Amino acid sequence: MxxxxxxxxxxxxxxxxAGIAEVFARAGIAVVGVETDPGALERGRGHLExxxxxxxxxxxxxxxxxxxxxxxxxxxxxxxxxxxxDLVIExxxxxxxxxxxxxxxxxxxxxxxxxxxxxTSSLSVTAIAATTxxxxxxxxxxxxxxxxxxxxxxxxxxVSTEDGLAEEVAGLARRLGKTPVTVADRAGFVVNxxxxxxxxxxxxxxxxxxxxxDDIDTAMRLGAGLPMGPFALLDLIGLDTSYEICEAxxxxxxxxxxAPAPVLxxxxxxxxxxxxxxxxxxxxxPPANPSSEEKPSASTVAVVGGTAANGxxxxxxxxxxxxxxxxxxxxxxxxxxxADLVVAVSRTPVIEQAVRLPHPARLxxxxxxxxxxxxxxxxxxxSPGAAQVARGLLRILGRTAVSCRDRAGFVVGALLHPHLxxxxxxxxxxxxxxxDIDTAMRLGCGYPAGPFEMLDRLGLETVRDGLRxxxxxxxxxxxxxxxxxxxxxxxxxxxxRDLSS
Length: 501
Ligand code: 3HC
Prior knowledge:
Elements: E1 7-11, H1 15-26, E2 30-34, H2 38-57, H3 63-71, E3 73-76, E4 87-90, H4 96-109, E5 115-118, H5 125-129, E6 138-142, E7 152-157, H6 165-175, E8 179-184, H7 191-207, H8 213-223, H9 230-237, H10 239-253, H11 262-269, E9 300-304, H12 317-328, E10 332-333, E11 341-345, H13 351-354, E12 363-369, E13 373-378, H14 384-396, E14 400-405, H15 412-428, H16 434-445, H17 451-458, H18 460-474, H19 483-490
Parallel strand pairs: 1-2, 1-4, 2-3, 4-5, 5-6, 7-8, 9-10, 9-11, 11-12, 13-14
Antiparallel strand pairs: 6-7, 12-13
Helix pairs in contact: 1-2, 2-3, 7-9, 7-10, 7-15, 10-11, 15-17, 15-18, 17-18
3-hydroxybutanoyl-coenzyme A is lined by residues 51, 54, 58, 60, 121, 144-146, 148-150, 192, 195, 227-228, 233, 237, 241, 444-446.
């Protein structure tokens, strides 16, 4: 019998739960919102009023529409009020014991035909379903933050889910104006299984001192074109939730890449949870003083190219183009021996070029990313002054400089290539199609292009070679190119998406 879903319960009215309640109410569906105590209930009401108030002030809703939406949501602290709901979605903290206890209660109070759904980010829907007498009517319905904005809903079916139920829930997601992607029950599903390892990797690289928080955020936003940098996004998701997702991924995979970076635990233990607590990686710090921005004082610059591997230092195409831009901007270019600053437009290790120079302290590595960003790598021998001068010089050339250490991939490659590799591995494992993975990352995380679209744009060989360099440097097995990627490059295939057509 097809479900109608006319009244929906939402348990837990934190950021996600309140957002989910808003989505249903906007679609004309009656909502019963449940919180544990009156204080939490009021905060939940506040989230809904705030979000619809912002839409009102931006002219996206009229006063009457807003009142109608809010009027569709009943607030209560009693689970018993869910007895008439056709569907109940749980959006409580990401702790299995809490979820299992709640589902036992929901199973008791909800009518037998009701569908019980969890918005879990990464925990086993199967294990949650098993606490009920109706595992066939339990699914995952996973929304993305901010729920009213992000268009994806992951519908998670388990081995116990009744035939046809996932399709019904996907139909409901469409009625909400969302795009469903239906998947089986694996930790993190599609999006979090790809997103969190990347965010966790960013946290690990920050700890290792590869670059700064702001430079990493800038690199991924302006260089890779993502809507937010990894630290801004970790703060949005919540560091506690992010930590729990990594734990769940690690428990299932035992992959080093999924083990939460120690800095995440430190922040969570300190109560610095991100936006919801007012401070996480960002927040409550004095703004940077723009007057302290570096001013280039180098009178002469030399540009060298060639990869470190051939180590010639002879100017190649990219280096020549960069030298021309410098000259056009009024900088005097000269021979390496006479230069105050030497810019190596090359791959890492930059140090291999530095040791061949008469003044290695004057050398920085440079990697231009897209139209806006330039990564500036300092070696152990680079003087702070030279790095600062390089940043200023790039600013004059209209590029945002991202400073980093001399490590494979600089910042963007180090973070993006393994992220894309994970997507290839996911596809290779048979868990999801390329189309679903691309859709999920575009609509769930606001990516301008899905991972497979990015792979094709960047070039399969470029990404494969980037991964090889990362693997050679860090010896982390998760950086080894996915066998499929290697094979496609060997076979001379240009578009990975050709495989899916
Ligand atoms: N609630 C409701 N609406 C919001 C909102 C919120 N918290 N934040 C932003 N919006 C709305 C704004 O009102 C605006 O709507 P309008 O165009 O109708 O006026 C629209 O979103 C765009 O907002 P802004 O112009 O203020 O800001 P941006 O253009 O920078 O977009 C963003 C903000 C949509 C958050 C964008 O930066 C983005 O897509 N970021 C990526 C977010 C992401 O990756 N989410 C998924 C995280 S993973 C997850 O949630 C899974 C979980 O299990 C962990």
